[in-house]
Amino acid sequence: MSELAVPRTTQARNARAVARAAAERIGFPAGWWGMLMLIASEGTLMGSFVATYWYLRLRAPHWPPAGIPDPKVVVPMAMAGVLLTTSVPMQLASLAVRAGRLTATRLWLLLAFVVQSGYLAYELADYMDELHRTAMTRDAYSSIYFLLLGADHAHVFIGLLLELWLLLKLVRGLTMYRLNATVAIAWYWHFVNLLTVIVIGTLTSVNVV
Amino acid sequence: MTTIELPTRQRVDRLERMWQPEPGVLGWLTTTDHKRIGLLYFWTTLVLFGLGGAEALTMRTQLASPNNNVVGPSTYDQLFTMHGVTMIFFFIIPMTTGAFGNYLIPLMIGARDMAFPRMNALSFWVFLASGLFLYIGFAAGSGPDGAWFGYVPLTTRAFDPGRGEDFYALAIIFNGISSSLASANFIVTMFKMRAPGMSFNRMPTFCYAFLAASFGLLFALPALSADCIYLWLDRNHGTHFFDVAKGGSTLLWQHLFWFFGHPEVYILIVPAFGIATAIIPAFTQRKIVAYPLIAIAELLVVFIGFGVWAHHMFTVGLPTITVVFFAAATAMVVIPSAIQVFSWCMSLITGMPRFKTPLLFIAGFIFMFVNGGLTGLMFVAIPFDQQVHNTYFVIAHFHYIIFGAAVFPIFGGMYYWFPKVTGKLYLERPGQISFWLIFVGTNLLFFPMYIVGLLGMPREIYTYAPSTGWSAYNLAETIGGYLTAFGILALLGNLVVSYRRGEPAGPDPWNGPTLEWATSSPPPEYNFAVIPTVTSAYANWDVADRERDARNLADGAMVLDQGHETAVSSVADGRFSEIVEMPHSSPWPPILAFCLAMVFTGLVIGKIGLAAIFALLCLVSLGGWHWKEPQEA
Fold first, then answer.
1. Which homologous superfamily is A3-203 in?
2. Could you tell me the pLDDT band of residue B46, with boundaries at 50, 70 and 90?
3. pTM above 0.90, yes or no
4. From A22, which residue of chain B is nearest by alpha-carbon distance?
5. So what's the pLDDT on residue B583?
């Protein structure tokens, strides 16, 4: 097999050439696999937190302990639902970039960014408000509650940073590096969105389960 | 295509120029070359091995006679904690994955570098910083003293004031970042960077072992990180994860710790299995027996390892059904382990073994592994486990496994790949002597521990009374310890002398089966002038393929010299997929590691502001890192 038949993907210099080179290669690039590794590692960390929540809860006589109100259900779940819908523009951005449509990519990313920022702003205000009423140091329940929720918000925040960085990069046109990044960051957001549903579902399940 | 007309020499010169590193110290600081990073790992872990060994010898000196007074109880506590933490997190993992894996895996799969070269450099610098972090704490009198498993409530603020356990919790998270980065990098490298034609069923078993260990690290470390986050928060910020009075649980620590801790054991020894399966074919000149079973067994050991953690907790009062389940799961580990032992033995019996030093270490390893494995199997008998729990019997068992099964192949591997790394041959006779010193020393060191364990000597005691009757055994152990240390010094001395005065080795002194022997010793920066094409798992024995590589160089095919280029393949079947530019040297990995170290320093001394500033600087350095893309450099 000669290298002449194989694309030199990082040498493509305009959006269409990048998209063509991406279509010619076989399978996902190393960068996408790298993102999958990050998701595996972060997913396990968050899984440990969720497992801790259930471990403590199943051993507690009262959950939440007496004196702490039950967590809100409707608004947090609705917010998680809103965040989940941003998987759609992220995936559309991922499809657009692979078709070499740079403007569409930027717009989908921007739309997702706006919604996700709104989500995080609301959630952080709510988080600070709850922290104000119940200290994290009150008992094991509040410790794991705020740690789990805070860690989830941190993942959203990191996703926003990645997206912002990507949007800045895309101002200067498309390269293979940025195409790979778009596809990978879309996957990161699918992971974060799913994670948020699991985390908020866990934390609000007190009344349900 | 003007390059095709150029003669071979000019083509190689062009590669040399493209891949030339920065000169001097700057070159080592900014390097992204997996071989240099492997060597940096090697030297750093060797120093840490020396420290961990010195701690062990100090403990053995203290225990040499009853009522001894070399060190006091509080120093002794710090010594065994530091010894455990050092040997596991700062010697074996970075030595196998960091040093051996880094240097050899890209060579074995015919790649020019790792999938993420800068991230590879980052994992080294983070590892170095975390080692310094832990040892600066120790030197400043804040060594952790709650054993390597740091059980709560002993390690909570109430029972263990001082900074020692804070250093422990943060150093382990810090070190975990390094290992997670490294393992992710290895997995993607083995998935995507294999030479064209190297489908999964042609990947060397050495690589399978490191793939298994990397998967283990990737999925086990987060549980430990979560645990250490809880410990740090409980100790410093008043949370109650482990506080039973406030609804927390002390067993939570143990579950999460051993969910990491048992896969960890396999993470330590599976790379050693890989080294064994690399050395045996070279010195028997035959293919390893049952290649597919070996590959599966290596992965299976780690996979089953995730379902056995509670066998460390048989005495804490778990429900009987749980205990029985975990005992059964533990017994299952025997199957993949035995498959490998039989394969090694059959390869030796049916081949023509030449017992040069590397193979001697592998033979010693098989003996030690079977010994430690059989006593490990005894723990499946739950009443027996409860009887010997927390005694020297357990210490003997896991030292047979960790020293005998994990470190022996590391020593064998040092001899085996020494000619590749340095281009010189080691001295054979002194090498054999070093093996026998280490072999006799370790058995004298560890076997009596079984006996004193059965006699009831508990672990982690700083002295004992003469009336116990343990004195003679302990003295023998101490003599064994010094003999082992002497053997290790003989090994290192051999390598130093050979490096200075050894005979030139040539590219392939052993007729090795895998691709690292297909290139010069030491390999050039770009590893292979021609990206090799692979048609079997023993690529260097496929003479026709290697002749085709030579023809390709003459024809200018598969040279990939239009930049800092390497080949990328499809995951399962190794089809040639794309040619990509690889990143050059970068100053950002050490800068980012420094900023991270300052974050952890801020956290451990309670200066959250300092930590926050450097966390911001971490983001800035990540921005700098990604500012220039590989093809723009």
1. Cytochrome c oxidase, subunit III, four-helix bundle (1.20.120.80)
2. very high
3. yes
4. B578
5. 87
